[in-house]
Amino acid sequence: MRKCPFCAEQISDDARICPWCSADLISGTPATPSPAAPGRNIPSPIAAGEAQTSGMAIGSLITGIFFFVLPSAIAAVILGHISRSEIRNSDGRKKGAGMALAGLILGYTGISLIPFLIIAAIAIPNLLRSRISANEASAVSSLRSLNSALILYNSTYGQFPPKLSNLAPPASGKPTREAADLIDQALAGGTKVGYTFHYEAFSSQGTPTLDLYRLTAEPLVVNQTGTRFYFTDQSGAIRYATGERANENSPPL
What are the CB-based long-range contacts (under 8 Å, 24+) for 90-98? Predict the structure, then answer.
C-alpha cells in the first residue's frame, strides 16, 4: 500500500488512477474529484456555502415581539434557548444567535410582567367597585339635599320650583324665586359625581301651583359610574333599582 501524492489517501501499489481523487498516477496529473468518487465525503451545499439562519431563532424573535401575551412570551423563551443551543453545536452551519437573544430578552420581559398583570387584574375591579360605591353614596346624599332644598323652597315661595336651576346660587345679590341659593351650582346643573339628576314638578289639582315633583338619579355610564338608579318625590323616600330606571314602586333604601 502507498499514499496518493495528491490526496494522501491509501491506495494499492499497482493503482494507476487514485480511487479517491481520480488523479492519473502514471502521468502525474491531478483530477477534480467527482461527486460520485467512491469513499469521498463531498461537502453538502449548506456546509460549503453560507450559513443558514435558524428557524427557531426567527420564531423566538417573532413570538417575543408579542411578549405582552403570556403564551407568546413563554414560546419566545423556549425557542430562544433551543435555537442558541442549536447554533452553538452547528459548527457555523447555523446563524441567528442575535435574533434568539432578542427573543429571549423580550420573552423574559413578558414573563416578568406577570405579577404586575395579576395585581392589576385584582386591583382594577376593586377600584372600579369602590368608585361605583362612592358615586352611589354621593347620589343618595345629593337626593337628600335636593329633597330638603325643595321642601324649603316650597315653604318659602308657596310651590316647588319649575326647574332645578331655580335652587342654584344667584349670580349676584340676594336669593330669589329664580335663584334661591339652596344647592351648589353643579347639582343645580343636573350632573354630579358620575350621576345625572332629572327633576319634574307638576300640579295635582290642575292649577298653576306646583305641589308635586319627581326626582331621579341615573349613572352617567351604567356599570362604570354606578349600577343603581334612584327615585324620590315630595314624600322624601328614596327608592332604587338595579339595571333599570327606578320609580315610585321600586323598593326603598
Answer: 90/51, 92/51, 93/46, 93/47, 93/51, 93/52, 94/51, 94/52, 94/53, 94/54, 95/51, 95/52, 95/53, 95/54, 96/53, 96/54, 96/57, 96/58, 97/57
Q: 3-state class of 79 per DSSP?
A: helix
Site of grid cell 412570551: 73
In the predicted model, is pLDDT for residue 150 greater than 80? yes
Beta bridge partners of 219: 195
Check residue 229 and give its pLDDT.
97
* 217, β-bridge pairs: 197, 230
- Given a cut of 70, is residue 223 above it in pLDDT? yes
Question: Do you know the residue count of the chain?
Answer: 253
Cα 138 to Cα 22, 91, 134, 168, 237: the distances in Å are 99, 72, 6, 18, 16
Tell me the C-alpha to C-alpha distance, in Å, between residue 57 and each of 49, 66, 216.
20, 15, 62
* Beta carbons within 10 angstroms of residue 39's beta carbon: 7
Three-state secondary-structure class, residue 91: coil
* Paired sense of beta strands 2-3 and 191-192, if any: unpaired
Q: Which pLDDT does position 42 carry in this prediction?
A: 44
Which pLDDT value is given to residue 232? 97
Reported as type and span, the H/E element at residue 241 is strand 238-242
User: Whole-angstrom Cα distance, residue 7 to residue 17?
Assistant: 12
Provide the CA 245 distance to its chain's centre, in angstroms.
32
What phi-psi label fits residue 232: left (phi over 0), alpha (psi between -120 and 50 degrees) or beta?
beta
